[in-house]
């Protein structure tokens, strides 16, 4: 952003030195087999949603095919994806958690 310096009338470029980390959307995909209750448990457990919010998000994924669970820096997003997919496989469900640059 270019701003005028009030002291000497010089136009200066006002660049923040703080680099924000790239963020990633963590998403769940719909499938025909994972029980709705299991998806609600995943959203509550790994994304700290209330029962009401988790139910809303689950139904959105069920009807639209995909839905956002949260937005995080790379390392946190990767950990969420790994934890959710591991938990789903341990419970014999095909639920897929993925991440994508925001
Ligand atoms: N479509 C699933 C069913 O009818 C429910 C479901 C919702 C599965 C969201 C996955 O990410 C998902 N049992």
Automatic annotation (TrEMBL):
Subunit structure: Binds to the N-terminal domain of the chaperone ClpA.
Keyword Flavoprotein (UniProt): no
Gene Ontology molecular function: peptidase activity
Residue ranges that the Swiss-Prot or TrEMBL entry lists as coiled coil: none
Keyword Protease: yes
Family: Belongs to the ClpS family.
Function: Involved in the modulation of the specificity of the ClpAP-mediated ATP-dependent protein degradation.
Domain of life, source organism: Bacteria
Stretches assigned to the Adaptor protein ClpS core domain: 20-97
GO biological process terms held by the UniProt record: protein catabolic process; proteolysis
Annotated Gene3D superfamilies: 3.30.1390.10
InterPro entries associated with the record: ClpS, ClpS_core, Ribosomal_bL12_C/ClpS-like
Protein name: ATP-dependent Clp protease adapter protein ClpS
Assigned keywords, A-Z: Hydrolase, Membrane, Protease, Transmembrane, Transmembrane helix
Pfam families documented for this protein: ClpS
Matches recorded under PANTHER family: ATP-DEPENDENT CLP PROTEASE ADAPTER PROTEIN CLPS, ATP-DEPENDENT CLP PROTEASE ADAPTER PROTEIN CLPS1, CHLOROPLASTIC
């Amino acid at each position: 952003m270019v701003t005028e310096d009030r002291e000497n009338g010089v136009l200066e470029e006002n660049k923040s030195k703080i680099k924000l980390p790239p963020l990633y959307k963590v998403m769940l995909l719909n499938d025909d087999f994972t029980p709705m209750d299991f998806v609600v448990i995943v959203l509550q457990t790994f994304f700290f949603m209330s029962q009401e919010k988790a139910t809303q998000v689950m139904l959105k994924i069920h009807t639209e095919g995909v839905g956002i669970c949260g937005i995080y820096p790379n390392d946190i997003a990767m950990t969420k994806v790994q934890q959710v997919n591991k938990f789903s496989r341990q419970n014999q469900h095909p639920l897929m958690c993925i991440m994508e640059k925001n």
